[in-house]
């Protein structure tokens, strides 16, 4: 059974129970009060009757014959009083007209107890019987009053019926309200359930919408937080997976091309009759392809094993920059550019070899992009290593992807220049090993600035124009 | 008389392009090589009398898929040569109407056979082979040497055709039999030796048809 139905049923039962108890208590109270007031009236009437008897009986009563005369007198006298439902017993004998029931059957009274009352039923009627015993001039008088109490019962029955009707209406309305309230309260829960199902089915972007501030609301809120964490995690895993797939795809593609050339050449050399110089030509081309492959394998291995082999310890920055200068001397000469070094940092935690190879890579990229005579700035300050040039810059469409392995802005030209498209991927990897962020700013025609920002300033790759 | 088939090669790896071209040349094809998609497309505007195009997909300038529309325009059948192994690319190539799809790395022989199949299917295959003064017309099944009709048995004709088709290339005895009777044939390979001996005698090719030890025969054009 659904929780909503269950809760509604339980609340409905409680409502019904409360209504029943309240109703019974009320009816009982009404009954008690009616009886009490009836009894009071009966007792008053009875007292009055007694005083009328004691005050109204003639003085010659004592002289009458107790066995006969007194009884006749009393019957006459009592009849004249004319009180409905009253009965008088004189010395144990009934001297009045008979009442609907004989009160002596239901109530025994004596002198000491004052007025007594009892309720009884007979022949479908309810009666209240009150009796009072008193002594007058040596004789025992017992006065009874039988009042019909059936009307109280009828009244009560009517009241019960009306009450039941009202209670039923209230109960139904209450039940509807309850149901609505419970539904409202349960709504976030139901939504939560639906959302969990959705998320379980792989729709990680689903969220619960709840405005309530109660426990359910806070559960929904916590659930959303959890779902977001899961979504982010899944997303980052997916991205990582996609990146790896892309990387593997690129590696495969990059390997296949030189391998194809090699295979075709071997195939041709083996089965085609070729003049000597053609054979030599093919062999040289194979040599090129093999060198290319060897270098690429070397770089890839470096890229893959980078994070494991890195040894990071404090190292003087001026020494690092000097090393970079020495290593890039050849390129500077080749491209006719000049390297300007500015150093304002003493030491940085680094793997010297990796960091210098990253900087060499950046400086050489700058040299390739610069015109002869232009300067390249290599600067270290504020825990930032920076390589800046005034070269041709990077087109905006390439900026975002430039750190992807094998990405080349212009495939044909890069290949002629002997690049693999792995340089910036390596730099990025080296930066992440140092927990440094890689920032590339570039404007076509104006130049490029690449910054390695060491910790303290976050660890993200920021690419801006 | 039909002239040699003209092949357009668009491939950015120079070594691959060179070697494929070399093999095509020996197989009696004429060819043109481009290493840039855009350049190839520009050339097609003026000269589009190609019988077949061999296209790489990842190309500078314009990729193979984009180049395909030019091929369609000039009704040039296409064989893709690509390193892309995903079935998506393959499906795309073939759905677009490419005749065939070769995944790198591939062998030269495979390329030549596929090319021949495509040329045959599209009715463009040159059926006239020449070797010095010998001309073999595969359509009419005639062989002439210096204009004189030569009398060859059907089997001799077929063996000669295989040799001429694979000029300068070593062909094994098995391949000769396969090319004549299809892949399922398991014949006595010495039948080939007998026909070769006859051909050498009848056509005076005792030096030109070389026996390559452990490999087969080769018709050499020095």
Short account of what is shown:
Chain A is of the alpha+beta class and 465 residues long.
Report on this structure.
The complex is a heterodimer of chains A (465) and B (222). Chain A has 465 residues and is an alpha+beta fold. Chain A contains ten helices and 13 strands. A six-stranded mixed sheet of chain A has the order 7-9-10-12-11-13. Chain B is α/β, with parallel strands linked by helices and 222 residues long. Helices cover 41% and strands 20% of the residues of chain B. Chain B contains eight helices and eleven strands. Chain B has helices spanning 14-26, 37-46, 64-73, 87-96, 108-121, 154-165, 173-181, 190-203; strands spanning 6-10, 30-34, 52-55, 78-82, 100-103, 128-131, 134-137, 142-145, 148-149, 209-212, 216-219. In chain B, β10 and β11 (216-219) form a beta hairpin. The radius of gyration of chain B is 19 Å and the shape is elongated. The interface between A and B is medium-sized, with 31 and 34 residues.
Rg estimate of chain B, integer Å:
19 Å
Low-confidence stretches of chain B: none
Task: Please indicate the percent range of residues of chain A in DSSP E strands (runs of 2 or more).
Answer: 15-25%
User: What order do the helices and strands of chain B follow?
Assistant: EHEHEHEHEHEEEEHHHEE
- Biggest sheet features of chain A: 6 strands, mixed
Q: Give me the secondary-structure category of chain B.
A: alpha/beta
Principal-axis shape of chain A equals rod-shaped
Distance between the termini of chain B: 25 Å
Tell me the series of helices and strands of chain A, N- to C-terminal.
HHEEEEEHHHEHEEHEEHHHEEE
Shape of chain B: elongated
Terminal Cα span of chain A: 61 Å
Going by helix content, strand content and strand pairing, the class of chain A is: alpha+beta
Question: Which short descriptors sum up this protein?
Answer:
heterodimer, A: 465 residues, alpha+beta, 6-stranded mixed β-sheet, 5-stranded antiparallel β-sheet, 57% helix, disordered C terminus, B: 222 residues, 5-stranded parallel β-sheet, 41% helix
């Amino acid at each position: 059974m659904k929780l909503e139905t269950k809760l509604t049923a339980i609340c409905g039962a409680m409502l019904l129970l409360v209504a029943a108890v309240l109703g019974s208590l009320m009816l009982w109270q009404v009954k008690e009060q009616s009886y009490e007031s009836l009894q009071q009236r009966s007792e008053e009437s009875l007292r009055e009757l007694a005083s009328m008897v004691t005050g109204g009986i003639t003085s010659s009563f004592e002289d009458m014959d107790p066995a006969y005369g007194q009884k006749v007198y009393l019957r006459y006298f009592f009849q004249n009083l004319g009180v409905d439902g009253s009965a008088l017993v004189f010395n144990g004998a009934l001297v009045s007209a008979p009442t609907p029931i004989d009160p002596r059957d239901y109530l025994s009274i004596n002198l000491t107890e004052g007025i007594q009352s009892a309720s009884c039923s007979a022949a479908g009627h309810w009666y209240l019987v009150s009796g009072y015993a008193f002594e007058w001039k040596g004789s025992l008088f017992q006065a009874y009053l039988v009042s019909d109490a059936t009307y109280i019962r009828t009244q009560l029955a009517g009241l019960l019926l009306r009450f039941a009707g009202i209670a039923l209406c209230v109960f139904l309305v209450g039940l509807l309200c309850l149901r609505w309230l419970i539904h409202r309260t349960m709504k976030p829960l139901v939504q939560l359930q639906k959302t969990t199902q959705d998320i379980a089915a792989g729709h990680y972007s689903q969220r619960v919408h709840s405005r309530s501030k109660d426990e359910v609301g806070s559960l929904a809120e916590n659930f959303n937080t959890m779902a977001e964490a899961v979504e982010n995690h899944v997303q980052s895993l997916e991205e990582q997976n996609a990146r790896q797939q892309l990387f593997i795809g690129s590696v495969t593609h990059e390997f296949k091309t030189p391998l194809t050339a090699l295979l075709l050449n071997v195939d041709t050399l083996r089965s085609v009759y070729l003049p000597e110089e053609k054979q030599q030509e093919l062999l040289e081309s194979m040599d090129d392809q093999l060198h290319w492959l060897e270098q690429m394998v070397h770089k890839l291995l470096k890229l893959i094993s980078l994070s494991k082999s890195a040894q990071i310890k404090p190292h003087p920055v001026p020494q690092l920059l000097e090393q970079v200068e020495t290593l890039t001397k050849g390129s500077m000469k080749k491209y006719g550019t000049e390297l300007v070094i500015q150093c304002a940092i003493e030491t940085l935690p680094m793997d010297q070899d990796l960091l210098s190879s990253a900087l060499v890579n950046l400086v050489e990229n700058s040299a390739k992009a610069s015109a002869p005579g232009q300067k390249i700035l290599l600067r270290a300050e504020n825990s930032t290593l920076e390589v800046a040039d005034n070269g041709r810059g990077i087109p905006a469409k390439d900026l975002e992807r430039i750190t992807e392995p094998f990405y080349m802005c212009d495939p044909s030209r890069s290949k002629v220049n002997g690049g693999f498209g792995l340089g910036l991927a390596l730099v990025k990897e080296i930066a992440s090993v140092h927990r440094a962020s890689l920032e590339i700013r570039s404007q076509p025609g104006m130049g490029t600035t690449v910054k390695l920002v060491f910790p303290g300033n976050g660890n993200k790759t920021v690419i801006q124009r | 008389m039909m002239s040699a088939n003209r092949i357009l090669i668009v491939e950015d790896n120079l070594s691959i392009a060179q070697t494929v071209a070399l093999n095509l040349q020996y197989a009696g094809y004429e060819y043109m090589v481009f290493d840039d998609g855009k350049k190839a497309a520009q050339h097609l505007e003026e000269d589009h009398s190609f019988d077949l195009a061999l296209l790489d997909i990842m190309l500078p300038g314009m990729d193979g898929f984009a180049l395909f529309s030019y091929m369609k325009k000039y009704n040039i059948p296409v064989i893709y040569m690509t390193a892309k192994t995903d079935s998506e690319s393959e499906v795309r190539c073939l759905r677009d109407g490419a005749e065939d799809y070769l995944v790198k790395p591939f062998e030269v022989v495979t390329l030549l056979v596929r090319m021949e199949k495509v040329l045959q299917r599209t009715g463009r295959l040159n059926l006239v082979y020449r070797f010095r003064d010998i001309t073999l017309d595969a359509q009419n099944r005639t062989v002439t040497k210096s204009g004189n009709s030569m009398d060859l048995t059907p089997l001799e004709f077929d063996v000669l055709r295989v040799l001429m088709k694979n000029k300068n290339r070593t062909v094994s005895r098995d391949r000769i039999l396969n090319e004549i009777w299809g892949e399922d044939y398991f014949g006595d390979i010495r039948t080939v030796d007998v026909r070769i001996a006859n051909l050498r005698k009848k056509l005076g090719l005792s030096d030109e048809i070389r026996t390559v030890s452990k490999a087969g025969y080769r018709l050499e054009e020095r």
